[in-house]
Amino acid sequence: MARGGRGGGGGGGGGGGGGGGGGGGGGGGGGGGGGGGGGGGGGGGDGGGGGGGAGGGGGGGVKTEELLPHPVNEQLPGVQYCVNSPPPWPEALLLGFQHYLLSLGITVLIPSMLVPQMGGNNNEKAKVIQTLLFVSGFNTLFQSFFGTRLPTVVVGSYAYVIPVTSMLLASRYSAVADPHERFERTMRGIQGALIITACFQMVMGFLGLWRNTARFLSPLSVVPLVTFTGLGLYHLGFPMLAECAEVGLPALILVVFISQYLVHLIKSERTIYDRFAVLFSVAIIWVYAVVLTASGVYHKKPTDVQSTCRTDHAGLIGGAPWIYIPYPFQWGNPTFNAGEAFAMMAASFVALIESTGSFFVTSRYGSATPVPPSVISRGAGWLGIGVLLSGMFGTVTGATVSVENAGLLALTKVGSRRVVQISAGFMIFFSILGKFGAIFASIPLPIVAALYCICFAYVSSAGLGFLQFCNLNSFRTKFIVGFSFFMGISVPQYFREYHPNSRFGPVNTHARWFNDTVTVIFVSHATVAAMVALFLDCTLCRKHEATRKDSGSHWWEKFNLYTSDVRSDEFYALPCKLNKFFPAL
Question: Which intervals of the chain are annotated as region Disordered (predicted)?
Fold first, then answer.
């Protein structure tokens, strides 16, 4: 609780008497701590008496303290560089490199999972990683310049893994005997599905359909959305870290120690340790992992342990070319299939919901005002362009806003747009210089998972922070938050019990594309929690003014229209006066 002081004093009064006699009076004393006074009286004489006493109290030296609630902040305090405040260039370069390192985790993980199943070798896996990194760099620039204008990093989306895996099992791809031909044919099918999906997402964004949806959001319905945007990726945290505990656990302990404890143990005017905790911890643990690899610790270990723990087992450095510039349709002309496209559209819908949660996180940790719905829709449209580029270049997955990089904004307390634009430059640069980029991409994934444990936690806590706008003493609020949280955990767990390769699952029709569509939606924690919360918030007495206040809607009404708040232009206006040609509504 925030505390406020209040001094106090008290006073007393007196009276007099008459009657035939003398009178007397007495005075009183003062006390402290909100005190009061005392009085006395006197009397005398026959037939009369009198009285009076009086006392006065004055303020004392000791103050009582009244407990006050924490203030509600539309913009998060404590951020050292907000969206429009770039740090000095040397510091910005290091911070941008941190964002680049963190984005490598999902960039390496998804192709490493999918490319071998497609029939690709290490050379093709390295090229796909370079292509994904190349496209992610441009998508990040587009989003920061023309999309939401927030410090968001755009990377490959994990939501597309289920429909892509389903495609790999289709007979028209799996029946191809030659691995290289199977890889190229599958890649062309993925490209065609992504291109169709991109059209759907661009329509949702640029025509304002997503804007109309976002206007129904209140702080209450945003809480489960943002919270599960972080918590829903728990399987990429400690479970992946524990695959090589001797590397992952020291990394987790070190990044927590440097970012949270070392800043208090070593007093410094400059915030070095918490701001660059990722660089320090990755460098130290990476050297430690190299020593373990060189000492022969993993020589007799199983293959899966070696692939996770060794720093030289990914095959990326040997497979990557020295210089490689990705280009559109490098794997051949895309092929199109309606069923595959429908499943991909479901994945893009999930990625769009999770990206919306990340938009709220980055606006919060960038110390900006809540994102207007028109800006969210504009960002969704540019994400659609990102999916289109992914389909044209062949990245095996679509685009989404990086959750981990949104959490890194909180760890560094730097929400500057320039920093993520610099990270985009690193992505493009190292995607072209393949060998050098492959060195950083060979960081063991347990180290990255340790960073995820911190960054996803910050994203989840940002969601809980929106409860400050809501009435937590309302049973309606308690039900919506509690029920959406529970269903956001329980429903995806039910769907995750069935492996994608299984013929039996919660949805088991003859149309595999329909099975994948339903599974992709309901396996996402953020999607389920957000849909449940939004439905309940809109149907449970939403029109009553009291319940609107319970949901916190009265705090966000002025942000529903771009022009209603004068600060919108400060954070979200397009560069070069493009708002005149593309006005936000």
Answer: 1-42
Q: Report residue 68's pLDDT band, with 50, 70 and 90 as the boundaries.
A: confident
pLDDT at 500: 52
Q: State yes or no: pLDDT of 573 exceeds 60.
A: yes
Residue 203's pLDDT is what? 96
Average pLDDT, rounded, for the chain: 87
Residue 369: partners with Cβ closer than 8 Å, 6 or more residues away: 74, 75, 363, 559, 565, 567, 568, 571
Q: What are phi and psi of 81, to 5 degrees?
A: -135, 115
Token output for 246:
């001797």
* H-helix or E-strand spanning residue 132: helix 122-145
User: Could you tell me if 138 and 371 are in contact, meaning their C-beta atoms sit under 8 angstroms apart?
Assistant: no
- Asked whether the predicted pLDDT for residue 1 surpasses 70, the reply is no
In the three-class reduction of DSSP (H, G, I as helix; E, B as strand; rest coil), residue 323 is classed as strand
How many C-beta atoms lie closer than 10 Å to residue 274's C-beta? 16
**CA-to-CA distance for 284 and 264, rounded, in angstroms?**
21
| Cα torsion through 31, 37, 38, 41, rounded to 10 | 140
Give the separation between CA 533 and CA 463, rounded to whole angstroms.
13
For tokens 């990683």, what's the residue? 129
Report the distance separating Cα 413 and Cα 61, nearest Å: 40
Please check whether residue 443 is in contact with residue 100, taking contact to mean a CB–CB distance below 8 angstroms: no
Q: Give the pair of three-digit tokens for residue 415.
A: 């929400």
Please provide residue 278's backbone torsions phi and psi, each rounded to the nearest 5 degrees: -65, -45
| Burial track 327-366 (b if 16+ CB lie within 10 A, e otherwise) | eeebbeebbebebbbbbbbbbbbbbbbbbbbbbbbbbbbb
Please, are residues 447 and 286 in contact by the beta-carbon 8 Å criterion? yes
CA atoms lying within 13 Å on the CB side of residue 33: 1
- Please report where in the chains the tokens 């479970």 appear, as a residue: 239
Residue 323, token pair as written in the block: 């210089």
Give the pLDDT score at 18: 38
Cβ atoms of 409 and 368 within 8 Å: the answer is no
CB atoms < 10 A from the CB of 514, how many?
15
pLDDT in tens, 436-446: 988 998 899 99
Q: 111: which 2 tokens?
A: 């192709």
Which residues are paired to 53 by β-bridges?
26
pLDDT recorded at residue 504? 54
User: First CA to last CA across the chain, in angstroms?
Assistant: 39
Confidence of residue 63 (pLDDT cuts 50, 70, 90): low
Q: How far apart are CA 546 and CA 563, in angstroms?
A: 26
- One-letter amino acid at 203 equals V
For residue range 402-420, list pLDDT tens digits in order. Answer: 999 999 999 999 999 999 9
Contact 372, 211 (CB under 8 A): no
Q: Token pair of 547, please?
A: 């319940």
Quick one: 284 exposed, middle or buried, by C-beta within 10 A (0-12, 13-18, 19+)?
middle
Which amino acid type is present at position 481? V
Cβ-based neighbour number of residue 486 at 10 Å: 12
Instruction: Determine which helix (DSSP H) or strand (DSSP E) holds 41, and give its type and residue range.
Output: strand 41-42
